[in-house]
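User: Show me an example of a complex going from sequences to structure tokens.

Assistant: Sure. Here are the input components:
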Amino acid sequence: MQEVARNYFVNIFQQQDSDFSSVIDVINLSISVNDNDILTTPFTKAEFRDAIFSKHPDKCSGPDGYSPGFYQHFWTLCSDDIFKECCDWLDTGQFPPDLNITNIALIPKGSSQVSMKDWRPIALCNLLYKIISKVLANRLKNVLS
Amino acid sequence: MKAKTRGEDRYVALKLDISKAYERMDWNYLIAVLHKMGFHHRWIHWMRMCVESVDYSVLVNGEQVGPIIPGRGLRQGDPLSPYLFIICAEGLSSLIRDAETRGVLTGTKVCRQAPSVSHLLFIDDCFLFFKANEEHAHVMKNILSTYELASGQAISLTKSEIYCSRNVPNDLKHNITNILGVQVVLGTGKYLGLPSMIGRDRKATFAYIKDRVWQKINSWSGKCLLKAGREVMIKSVMQSIPTYVMSLFQLPTTLIDSIEKMMNSFWWGHGKTTHRGIHWMNWEKLSAPKVHGGMGFKDLSAFNLAMLGKQGWKFITEPNSLVARIFKARYFPSGSYLTATVGHNPSYVWRSIMRARFIVRGGARWSIGSGATIPILNEPWLSNGSLLVVILQVLTLFIILLLIV
């Protein structure tokens, strides 16, 4: 069972050669200098605060086991550390290696499960990673809309 | 949904089935698209960090299997993924747009002034529209395979569905399906969880809602609930099943009746397998608010109308959205939702939304800004109706006064 699951996901996530030059050619330039400025301005603590408090406190936690509720509750205590560390990682362009470990939980799809296709894989990320990603996503959202 | 055209021009709607859209997304492709769209290199580097530093472990029977180091794919559950996916899907829509500007592909229009629609994308649910002839089918096929090759997506054409407008002759239909390798269906598919075609038999189209409510009632968890538990079950589970569909379609009254009946018997049943029990009160009384002696259940048909009214309200408040533009061109080219008529050969959606108009009309008022767009006599901008009505009221009062004196 575990072997089957492993093979299935290794197969899916395996990189394949792709040829995208013809697609890239027709894509228009759509991000202006102004947009880029918005995207890359220094981060503020308020952004991180928004990201954390926009999460549902009881959401399932990732491999590290901390839920959003934890960070929300202790925000006054840990905000400075989180903010400093995250900015550090983003500035240096390097995440600590175990930040981005993700569990995949399998959720049954349909009434009977016979093959791996009958499960819906849901990725559970570490919350710390999710916060960073949410901050970035919020910026991207503003630019795209 | 809007593919009801039956004009002289022949059109085809193609519904794509993309399997494992997130997991198969190619990283190099993503980065290339980001570059091309003009993102700052710093930003691109952050994206790479977020996407490529992943390693997975799969939870099977409570044990971790892994680590699996991926070479592609976005994660379901990462807040960035939807946005990155939209950016990638931009590739597909650019390809289609490019083909359109070169004139080898034409999108559909519901009528002459309407905006042309060639593709609707929502993550992995896509609808493509094009003219029904062999050349266009070939072009479409090419576009799809280039996109597949580039992004790593797997479009399974055998599971995709095609729907031709009614005037497409059978042999042409046959040719197109051969070229694309898809199957023709008569609109049984769903787009975004809603039935994409509504046939003549509405009851059959929406029967699946009834089945789902029925399943919930018959599930074991429903059987052993207390009265209070059943109240919660009805309020938060069963009543929310049809909500999504009701936001767009007016459900047939017979269907609503039978759903309400099912919920009523569930409420009064004693939880045994027979589901028998005396119904001490009918649904109308139960659906009254608790302060008025009911149970606060929803009156489904009123709820339905309210939801539809909201759609109509959106036509007024967001006139620049795609839906509003299409409906305006098709049904009320001059005028607004409030003054529109049902028109000839309307789609079911439009008919539904028009049914709810009296609610919007009853409550809608202009709020006075510069006053430039308000027809002063007929439109309701006073708190009790239009100026005309008010003048008439004053006049009648005046006449009555005169008569008395």
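The lines above are the inputs; the final block is the predicted structure for all two components together. Chain A touches chain B through 56 residues (CB under 8 Å).
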